[in-house]
Design a protein that fits this description.
The complex is a heterodimer of chains A (301) and B (425). Chain A has eight helices and ten strands. Chain A has 301 residues and is an alpha/beta fold. Chain B is an alpha+beta fold. In chain B, the strands form four sheets. Chain B has a six-stranded mixed beta sheet with strand order 2-3-1-4-5-6, sandwiched between helices. A six-stranded antiparallel barrel of chain B has the order 7-8-14-11-10-15. In chain B, β21 and β22 form a beta hairpin. Chain B starts with 12 loop residues before the first strand and ends with a strand. The chains are: A alpha/beta (301), B alpha+beta (425). At the A-B interface, α1, α2 and α6 of A face α2, β2, β3, α4 and β7 of B. The structure holds guanosine-5'-diphosphate. Guanosine-5'-diphosphate binds next to α1 of chain B.
């Protein structure tokens, strides 16, 4: 007899498409947060599937720290053009110039925390009532309790104790004026699922993800790229190594790993053998054990 | 995703399970053990856990900390919300809905159970079946979880005694006979702390003939949890590309909620009552020969009919109930009690209507499973049966027949809070 069965990745895909369509249907002005990282790329790919053959019923939003690897911006612009999507860019530099945030100082200065303000301003300026994010529950402890539809108060804050229970596949996106939602279609995906899906769907990624030669130095157990945005301290040694990035974020705090993996297949082998969660390479999470929870409360992705 | 894959990874299936137990039965330790022994924890996570254990002055590395999420909980030392965990073996990928055992959190267990195929109910071997055990079993049954594992934990503290285990089996079976939705109950004696019968079969209990917990989780058959009989397609979104190439394209996007649809099938559209035939079933990756739950697809019909979100496409010869009056079991989630004659927003599949609570039929004492017929006020965590009238007809099946079309939530119109989970009788 015929068996009506989906494998687990098909189930995840179907669920993500369902969530994307719910978002389009339940909100007046959603937007998809597009960082150029693999999770947001997979999410955009799924969005394209969800609304095919129509265009995406929402724009892509990029919160630009100004501290980008050039590869990320190249990729973004090419992607947007190919998709025929609309792009909205929120500039952290503008938030700084407007005096809304203060640039961090010191050797570990990063613009990661400042992104939150720029993101909330961009949401407000454009009147977005839902922001689709590529967050996964397996990434970090605080995220394990995140909902698909995550309610934010009118300051954009997340209150872990005041989230709506989510039953079955029924999502409650009702809100008061001024409130908005973060929506996470990839909630149930793991890092391995994302990579396997990228392989299976033949999704093009920024070159940063693949092994390449780069000048790097070690700081607090992480390998940082030598770039115009970081000041190398006395005693820190810059040398060229073969590395790749496991996440793509602010160039000041996204650590590289030494790797020879220059294809998706090789990356998958590496992920399978990896003994570090991918956020383990991000210096901003190491600041305190509850760092992620603190930033989420303030409205971080 | 239609292409076949050779790698094997994509061929794994998915099992969603939930865990329930009273506080201190060892739930967090068990989950930590499953993640740890199946090599699904990472070095940096372990380092963080070791550091925290040391700071708290715990004697052993506290595996429970692996799964303890939020700061407030860490401070109070209890889990207060549903958290989701992931792990995989070469056979299956698992999603755990980790729900707290704290007394007032029936709501969390109901939430975790709503998407689960299987429930693990923990029992402390020293205490045996207690009031909360029956509560957990009742909820698993109410949410129609067909597979239950009773994990009798802390066997090390009862000298791995077969009698202690036997007593739990006996006591649990006694009241479980009344729980008609549970198809299969499996009992496994374990020690979460020491790892007996969790991932590897234990040498300490040679009298136990069954397999270890993980073996069971990898092999239990859960293929029939979706309904593949009654064709139901709630329309989520209408795709109308504003482009020259797809000028006349009108696709109904949604997720199949039951049954199987094929091109050529005669379908009935609710509420309009028009019939048509399926022209094609589209996805980004091409057209499908058939679509079944839980696939997300786009349906095209032969005739132009006005269809919008909240409508339902079904097979003409097998329609769902279409009524404004329903009877349902509900679990109350809000601090504000249910008000008799109260009005709420009801959301079922992709449809939203207003609903009036006509009558509370009874509440259930979930510890004794007795009906309470002289107290009609529903408070947080109460479970019982109510009668509702909706502002427009709903298209539904009984929850027992179809979890997708038989479930709903109630929303408070003022606060927008989700105040209840409902299962249509
Ligand atoms: N001796 C023994 N202790 C256990 C076992 N499982 C858990 N514990 C201990 O019981 C206590 C409560 O466990 P925990 O996992 O936090 O329980 P939870 O409240 O159900 O999550 C902890 O001190 C554990 O170390 C077991 O199998 N044997």
């Amino acid at each position: 007899m015929h068996s009506y069965k989906l494998n687990h990745v098909q189930q995840l895909e179907s669920e993500a498409i369902f969530v994307l369509r719910e978002t389009a249907a339940q909100f007046e002005k959603p937007a998809l947060l597009f960082s150029g990282g693999k999770d947001s790329i997979v999410m955009a790919h799924l969005a394209r599937k969800a609304f095919h053959p129509a265009r995406l019923p929402f724009p892509l939003v990029h919160v630009d720290t100004g501290h980008n690897f050039p590869e990320t911006i190249e990729y973004r612009d090419r992607y947007v053009e190919e998709m025929g999507a609309r792009l909205v860019v929120g500039l952290v530099q503008k938030s700084i110039d407007d005096g809304k945030v203060k640039e961090e100082t010191g050797i570990n200065a990063s613009r990661n925390a400042l992104q939150t303000v720029t993101l909330l301003d961009t949401i407000e300026e454009h009147g977005f009532d839902a922001a689709l994010g590529g967050g996964r529950r397996d990434e970090e402890k605080a995220r394990a309790k995140e909902r698909f539809f995550s309610h934010r108060n009118d300051f954009g804050e997340w209150d872990p104790k005041n989230q709506r229970p989510e039953l079955w596949n029924i999502f409650n996106g009702r809100k008061q004026h001024g409130e908005h939602f973060r929506v996470f279609p990839l909630s149930n995906w793991t890092e391995m699922d994302v990579w396997q899906y990228i392989l299976h769907e033949d999704i093009d990624l920024p070159s940063l993800y693949f092994a390449h030669k780069r000048k790097v130095f070690e700081r607090a157990g992480a390998l940082l790229a030598d770039s115009e945005f970081v000041a190398v301290q006395p005693g820190e040694v810059v040398d060229e190594r073969v590395v790749r990035f496991r996440t793509i974020g602010d160039a000041t705090c996204t650590g590289a790993v030494e790797s020879q993996a220059d294809t998706v297949e090789k990356i998958i082998e590496e992920v399978a053998a990896a003994r570090q969660t991918e956020r383990g390479t991000r210096a901003d999470d190491k600041r305190s054990e509850t760092a992620m929870e603190d930033r989420k409360k303030e409205g971080y992705f | 995703m239609s292409k076949e894959d050779e790698s094997g990874y994509l061929d794994m299936d998915l099992l969603r399970f939930t865990t329930a137990g009273s506080v201190d039965d060892g739930k967090s330790t068990l989950i930590g053990r499953l993640l740890f022994d199946s090599k699904n924890t990472f070095e940096d996570q372990m380092e963080a856990v070791e550091a925290s254990s040391e700071q708290r002055g715990d004697e052993n590395v506290n595996l429970a900390l692996l799964t303890d999420g939020l700061r407030a909980e860490r401070e109070q030392g209890i889990t207060i919300d549903v958290a989701y965990r992931y792990f995989a073996t070469p056979k299956r990928k698992f999603i755990i809905a980790d729900t707290p055992g704290h007394i007032q959190y029936t709501r969390n267990m109901v939430t975790g159970a709503s998407t689960a195929n299987l429930a693990i109910i923990l029992v402390d071997a020293r205490h045996g079946v207690v009031e909360q055990t029956s509560r957990h079993a009742f909820i698993a049954n109410l949410l129609r979880i067909q597979h239950v594992v009773v994990a009798v934990n802390k066997m090390d503290l009862v000298d791995y005694s077969e009698d202690a285990f036997g007593k739990v089996v006996h006591d649990f079976r006694q009241f479980a006979s009344r729980l008609e939705n549970i198809v299969e109950i499996t009992f496994i004696p374990i020690s979460a702390l020491h790892g007996d019968n969790v991932v590897e079969k234990s040498d300490n209990m040679p009298w136990f003939e069954g397999g270890a917990l993980l073996y069971h989780l990898e092999n239990v058959y859960v293929g029939s949890d979706e309904n593949h009989v009654d064709a139901r397609f709630p329309v989520q979104w209408v795709i109308r590309p504003q482009s020259d190439r797809y000028h006349d394209y009108r696709g109904y996007a949604g997720r199949v909620a039951g049954g199987v649809f094929k091109p050529g099938d005669e379908v009935l559209v609710l509420p309009s009552g028009f019939t048509s035939h399926i022209k094609s079933i589209d996805t980004f990756d091409g057209s499908l020969e058939e679509a079944f739950a839980p696939q997300s697809v786009t349906m095209l019909l032969e005739d132009e009919i006005d269809i919008s979100r909240g409508d339902m496409i079904v097979k003409a010869n097998n329609p769902p109930h279409q009524e404004q009056d329903l009877e349902a079991m509900v679990c109350w989630f809000s601090e504000r009690p249910l008000t008799p004659r109260g009005k709420y927003v009801l959301r079922q599949t992709t449809k939203e209507v207003k609903a009036l609570v006509k009558e509370v039929r009874y509440k259930v004492n979930i510890n004794t499973l007795h009906k309470i017929e002289d107290d009609f006020e529903f408070h947080l965590n109460d479970v019982g049966r109510i009668a509702l009238r909706t502002s427009a007809p709903l298209y539904f099946d009984s929850y027992r027949r179809n979890r997708n079309t038989g479930s709903f939530i109630l929303i408070d119109e003022q606060t927008n809070e989700t105040v209840a989970a409902g299962m249509i009788v």
